[in-house]
Amino acid sequence: MEPPKRSRTATRARLLAGALEVFAERGFAGASVEDICDQAGFTRGAFYSNFGSKDELVLALFQATTDRLLEQIEALLPDLATQPGTLLDAVLGLLDEAIGDQRQWHLISTEFTLHALRNPEAARALNEQRAMFRASLTRLVEEISAASDVTFSVPPELFVRLIIALHEGARSQSLLEPTKVPAGSLEHAFLPIVLDAVSQPSH
Amino acid sequence: MEPPKRSRTATRARLLAGALEVFAERGFAGASVEDICDQAGFTRGAFYSNFGSKDELVLALFQATTDRLLEQIEALLPDLATQPGTLLDAVLGLLDEAIGDQRQWHLISTEFTLHALRNPEAARALNEQRAMFRASLTRLVEEISAASDVTFSVPPELFVRLIIALHEGARSQSLLEPTKVPAGSLEHAFLPIVLDAVSQPSH
């Protein structure tokens, strides 16, 4: 049974990659399942045996992206425990690395968020996905603060929400004005200030 | 010549209000000039004698919204000079007040930003409009810091970019999860921390 499974994984991966291209260029609303199949070189049958809908495919894209990001952050944990000061730089660096094409990712993730604001079912699914990502990131922040004997004067979950809000807002400015606001520059300028202000030695 | 001018202003205002409704419900790409005219009760002729294109109308909406916001902030200036500590609360309060329907405004402004990321001419016009808004806000921050004898360890323009990035990113979370992230809560939790950390007495 191995070959069919490998092939199914490969089909999903090619559909996800094709969808990312198509969505980025035509927008979430403007891209049809046919467009995605054409781009990836599959039939509609192949699409629907992998995803129930366009929404489900986007959520799978989000999941794949956040899984990759969390995996890379976790790989850094052993180093971070001995060098806690580098936490933010490492996380911010990964945000850029794990997401290859920031413009493409911004277009599709922002567009799906707008879709969710008009569609309660999509909002529910997106919120669930985002909550899982925040929970993983919060656990990492807690592990690192424990390893470095630091406590926060704000709930770690709120600090994670700040990182996400600032990153998403800053990315919009960076994409509109790449030379004036290099990717990550607002995060690098302000997150260390906040982290320092809310950190206290545990003992 | 007064009545025609008043009437022209009223026509523009009704077209702007109609467009806000139509864009919020159908999206920027999905809304046609006809839809906007139907909503506002005007002909296409009336539309094109006021706006060269849909893009131009959205930029006029941005201008009207930011003008209203800056006007309200400026009205507060005399009080702020004597009570500098209330600056952020006042500005954050106005962001909510000046923009009546946050959801509607988020949908249209985010959608036009995505449009600009695919269209260099729209990007140029949007960047110009955003630069003017940032310049006005930066001047206000500088006036207030001078009046309260405080200097910043970061350029005021960068602090303004932070406020905008955090506000835009936080608004997305607030609209997706209104009860978990009340409007303005991330800004209120973190901007005073940053302001305090970057402020130094002038003498």
Note the main attributes of this structure.
homodimer, 203 residues, mainly alpha, Arc Repressor Mutant, subunit A, Tetracycline Repressor, domain 2, 2 domains, two-stranded antiparallel ribbon, 2 strands
Largest sheet of chain A: 2 strands, antiparallel
Strand content of chain A: under 5%
CATH class of the largest domain in chain A: Mainly Alpha
Sketch the topology of chain A as an H/E string, one letter per element.
HHHHHHHEHHE
Number of helices of chain A: 9
* Mean pLDDT over the residues of chain A: 87
In CATH, the topology of the largest domain in chain A is named Tetracycline Repressor, domain 2
Helix content of chain A: over 70%
- CATH fourth-tier homologous superfamily of the largest domain in chain A: Tetracycline Repressor, domain 2
Distance between the termini of chain A: 56 Å
Greatest interface by residues involved: A-B, 43 and 43 residues
